[in-house]
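Recall that a protein's primary structure is simply its ordered list of amino acids. Everything else, from secondary elements to tertiary packing, is in principle encoded there. The following example makes that idea concrete.
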Amino acid sequence: MYENLVVSADWLADNLDDVRVVDVRDAWEFDGIGHVPGAVSIPFDSFRSDVGDEGMLPGTDVWTDLMDEAGIDADDTLVAYDDTHGVFAARFLVTAELYGHRDLHLLNGDFSAWSREHEVERDAVDYPESDYEVRDPESSPLVGYDYVLDAVERVETGGEDAETVIVDTREAWEYEESHVPGAVQLDWMGLVDDGSRGLKSDEKLEELLAERGITPEKEVVLYCNTARRISHTYVVLRHLGYENVAFYEGSLTEWDERGGPVKTGETGETGETNESEE
């Protein structure tokens, strides 16, 4: 998944004949506003699990049916996009990775950014149905509740020298209300450039991450509420070459349900936190 993971609109325009493009916006946007030429519509809600298991994987049967209907094969090169700076598209890519898809890419920017300088079409392509095969991923970033509980202990006992950093990718107000002990706050939107609607430069991303102690030599454990926002941060970290990234899919939803410890408090620009027990 990680080679040339984030691709530009120009790159996609030059390679449309060699890739399969996936639009994860709502179907009405795909049909009514238009889409990248040749794209297929796989709305975000279609690859989320049922209510009650929000944010988790949809299941192999659901995923296989979606890929078959879209005419996507397991060895296709996929490029995903949305119109929300890539956060929904990133969740699609992480889901695809966990079902064993290998060649995955995020369009840097989103549909609005694409449509500024590139062709948009409204007619959908009718691809022949495929016979998609779910595979085991080459490696899985998924971790569960007990793993994160152990990570909290590693962070709290290691202090500034801890080899693990837990990252809360939600907004500051959410973090202040309740967060996993020892976590640093990094709003995923802080990685986005307002002008381009895509990622900030690699240099700025690395500086922002370093300010919070999120560096490549550490194990990075990601969480949000329902695994959507951490998908974007996960893709960004992989793009930057981070190798040890843990994806807590259950996130704070599961953490709270299982009675995990939480803290409240504010965080500053440097990641220093004034916390209190809740």
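The chain has two domains: 6-117, 142-277. Residues 268-273 have pLDDT under 50 and may be disordered.
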